[in-house]
Amino acid sequence: MNKNVLVLGAGVAGLQAALSLKELGYRVTILEKSSSAGGHLKDWDKLYPGNISSSGLIDNLISALDGTDILYNTTVTRSEKSDNGFITEISSGEKIDSGAIVIASGFSLFDARIKEEYGYGIYRRVITNADLEALFRSKEIHKMEMPAKVGFVHCVGSRDEKVCNRHCSKICCMTAVKQACEIKEIWPHADVYCFYMDLRMFGRGYEDLYYEAQSKFGVNFIRGRVSEAGEDKDGKVVVKAEDTLTSRPLKITLDLLVLMSGMVRNTDNKTISDVFGIPTGEDGFFFQPSPLINPTSSDSSGIYFAGSATGPKTVAESINEARAAALAVHKFLSKD
Amino acid sequence: MKERLVFGYDPFVLPFLTGMIFIIGYLLVGTIRIIICLNGRERKRLLTIFHPATAFRIVKDIFADCLLHIKIFKRNVLLGYMHASIAFGWFMLIVLGHIEVMLFTPQRNGILYYPIFFRYFVMETEQTLRGSFYFFVMDLCLLIVLSGIGLAIYKRFKSHRLGMKRTTKLRLGDNIALYSLWLIFPLRLLAESFTADISGGSFLTKGINSLLHSFVSNPSNISMVWWAYSSALGLFFFALPFSRYMHIPTEILLIALRHAKIEATSLRDGYSEAEIYSCSRCGICIDACPMTFNNQDVKFTSVYYIRLLRRRENASVPAGMCLMCNKCVELCPVGIDSTAIKLINREILNKRISFDYTPVNLSDPEINLAEAGKAKLLYYGGCMTALTPSVSFSIFKILEKAGIEYIHMDKENTICCGRPLLLSGNLKDAKELISKNRKLILDSGCQTLLVSCPICYKMFTEEYDLKNIRVVHHSVYINELINNGEISVKKSADSCVYHDPCELGRGSGIYDQPRSVLESIMDLKEAPEEKRESICCGGSLGSIALSYNNRKEIAKGSLNNLMRYSPDILVTSCPLCLRTFSSVNEKRTADIAQVVYEHMI
């Protein structure tokens, strides 16, 4: 029995899958295309529910994985099946022998510049959810002058056929509410507006935070998409939107506009799909032959998925799925 | 040459004669119906076709378009030859037939069938030498026609060899007309070969005569073959009104109406009726239509739209689908303006409640154009540029660098130029927008109106009547700034391809200025289909019914064409094309103003 397992991606799903496999007695090698572990979470500040420190979560996983190989700045180039599993060639030219493979390649953040009407990359005061988290994390936000008005635009690059993404990114509603509350905690006198299509507060406690955002923090929720943003002579952002509950167009001048960039397929999914011969869906995320009963299985035996490689997921879901993938690998490798 | 038959008649002429009388009657009624539909002013205009200069142009166009098919020649030589050989060759056969009658048997002048079956009714005399010239020319013309028919048969099986990927599906009427047309000329050859040693012939007819000597020397076969020839002609004439070949006679009328400057005013009557019957269903518009990339949605192309109209069926679906990119009109060998008919169709469909599209108060202090007179340059970005702020940002930087003062007309409150309403058939509301905007622009006292959206540009130049104010698109304006040395640019190693926006290229004829700009800053690559054959990006607001999925497919198809020679950057000069392409293009998409701004020194 081949006790080696290859994990692609050192984000939260990849790290958790590696940890669970390690605990089950397997020797794991993690490939990571960037120069550090943690994926998107390493840039995030706090996670809801519970305001858990994002970097703390990652650090715990990495320290528990002590002794596991994580190959940084590494990608896969070729893979073939052997009698004993897979022989995978990586960018350094090295060949890795493994009995099974877990794909935890995650997602890419939607490039907000594509929605040019919101002016990201053009207007100084337009930032994304990731930029705001970075400001929270580095504490830079406390050095900023208090903005009188802050706007959040939901669904940027999600549920938007105009940019070829029909799917919902699932976590941005919650993230926007969380970030809006955090802004209000820092500047209680700032006016905060959330422009939403509809709020998908699906998880336990999410609806409560949404309630709290209104009752405790006084965040304004406006149902309607922003049509365009412009810059006035002072460099402030002028937003045009429609309040669909009162059927009125509205124009508002903001000091800061935060775009909730959605989750889209990892830009490397196509390469991974070609190397391992596993298909992707129309949206670019990997195809799950049995999403309900075996969500971690691919249609190639010995290759499993964990996390948002198969679609937008929360951290909790990614962790659960990583554990499930580890069990599926264990079951697969213990067959003989 | 003298008459062989005393009465100058034989029963075999009957199929031809009845067919001919039928088609002449049909065409007369059709023409009268079209003229009745014209209003008084248009009928007066129609009289201008008798003015010698106009008449000359009409005859010239008939020769060029109906007989020689110059436009098709330009597109594909073989396809052009096929059309020209059949049309012009046949025309020459008819003309020469009449000349022969006039020369040799003047007493039979005016008898419909006589010039057609001349060879049957005459015999050689000692003066035959006089006729041998005609024998030769007639045989030559027949050979040319036959070569065209041969090509036509070849095209049925291998249409791509003649430059056509797809063509229309034929119906019963088309098939009868097509096969009878194919039969007419081989039968004529055979029939005239029979009489070649009686009434004279040349290399072709004499040649066949001696080749098939045993068959043609049997007099009992003669009648059969001439009957067949006459029947093929008769059948063709009877099938004509029910086939696509109605374009042959109708196009002549269409050319005359066009020169009388008559335009389509309704879906099915008058000028549009002439256009509908002039459609030859050649299918050039199928390959041209951006909707047909994956062999899908062929039914929405202009040729099928016009066929629905001709059959008086409901054509509102294709009328709403059309992107109005005008490529089919540009390439149509007959010059049918199907876009204009579709617009009329949309106006009829558009009966919804009017809405106030101009909530802007003209006395609003935010609309402060008082400075515009001083600045002389008024900039109008339009709705689409408001959604692509990088375009206006770059334009302003360029203007600042050149030291040109400007006023941004729609910085705060925008009034739409009106083209989306116009294209959706909402003429009334469009006019209201036009009058409000026009007042704003004229009152500003500016000299130049700079526009960054080709959609608005076309609207301002064609529908606004802005008197002395010059309307200029930013690609043209930037080209002038570079040529006048008001800004200088450096050349980089990047390569680019230029996408011609429909409204700027085909719509306004601006192809060269943007290319000249790009050549001065980058290596400009070509695309297989560009300039007047440029493929719509799919984002066009011309379509009022196309789904996003369809639009995405069109964008991908158009992108494929543009990126064929792998340029680094896709450059366009329309904010709408920019938006459409950036969501499907993996490489960079940019507006011409952006790349100029980046290359300024």
List the helices and strands and how they pair.
The complex is a heterodimer of chains A (336) and B (601).
Chain A: E1 4-8, H1 12-23, E2 27-31, E3 46-47, E4 52-53, H2 54-64, E5 69-71, E6 76-82, E7 85-90, E8 95-98, E9 100-103, E10 107-109, E11 126-128, H3 129-138, E12 149-156, H4 172-186, E13 191-196, H5 206-215, E14 220-223, E15 226-231, E16 237-243, E17 248-254, E18 256-261, E19 263-265, H6 269-276, E20 303-305, H7 315-333
Helix pairs in contact in A: 1-2, 1-7, 4-5
Chain B: E1 2-3, H1 14-37, H2 40-47, H3 52-67, H4 70-75, H5 77-104, H6 118-121, E2 122-123, H7 128-157, H8 172-194, H9 196-199, H10 203-211, H11 213-216, H12 219-239, H13 247-259, H14 271-278, H15 284-288, H16 302-310, H17 316-321, H18 327-331, H19 338-349, H20 372-375, E3 377-380, H21 382-386, H22 389-402, E4 407-408, H23 419-423, H24 427-444, E5 448-451, H25 454-463, E6 470-473, H26 474-483, E7 495-499, H27 512-519, E8 523-525, H28 548-562, E9 569-572, H29 575-582, E10 588-591, H30 592-598
Parallel strand pairs in B: 3-4, 3-5, 5-6, 7-8, 7-9, 9-10
Antiparallel strand pairs in B: 1-2
Helix pairs in contact in B: 1-12, 3-13, 5-7, 7-8, 8-10, 8-12, 13-14, 22-30, 26-27
